Amino acid sequence: MMTAILLLIAAYLLGSLSSAIIVCRLMGLPDPRTQGSNNPGATNVLRIGGKKPAAITLVGDSLKGLIPMLIGHLLEVGPGVLAGIGLAAFIGHLYPVFFGFRGGKGVATALGVQFGLYWPIGLCVAAVWLFVAKVLKISSLSGLISMALAPGFVWLFWPEKVLIGMQLIITGLLVWRHRTNIRNLIEGKEGRLTTKAD
Description:
Strand content: under 5%
Order of helices and strands: HHHHHHHHHH
Largest sheet: none
Number of domains: 1
Distance between the termini: 51 Å
Helix content: over 70%
Number of helices: 10
C-alpha cells in the first residue's frame, strides 16, 4: 500500500513539471501561458518558438506519462495501481502544483501513459494523431480524435475494466480541457499547425 501511495505522489509531482514553461525559460522564449493560445503545451511552443523547443516540450511531456508507468511495470504493480499512476501523471500535467495549477491540455502526457501501459496502445493512438494531423493540420482535432479512440485500443489490447476506466477518465478530462478548441472547430475558427517561421 505504501509503495502504491508513493508511486501516485511521485507520478503527480513528475506530471506537475511543465515542460513547456521550463523549456521556454531555458531557451529565452516568452512564457507560453502569455503568448499564442496561452496553453503551456508543445503546439503553442511550436507557434511561439519553432520546431526545436516544441520537440523538446513534446518529448518532456510524453516522458512524464511514460516514466511512472514503466516504474509501475518494473515494480510489478497490479492494473489498479497502474491506472492510478496514469491518472496521477495526467492530472499533474493538467493541474501542476509547481505552476499555480495552470497546466496544458494533456495529449502528449496521455500518449506517454498509453505507451507506458502497453506500447501497441500508444502506437495506435500516435498513428491516428499523425494521420489526422497530416491530413487536416489541426492539432486539437488530432488530439480529440485519437483520444476518443484510445479507450477502444485499451479494450482491444488489454481489456481490463480499471484500465479502460482510466482511459475513459483521461479522454473525458482531455475533451473538457479542449472545450474552447471544440467551440472554435464548430465555428470554423480553430488555428492550424504553424511554426514561428510561418
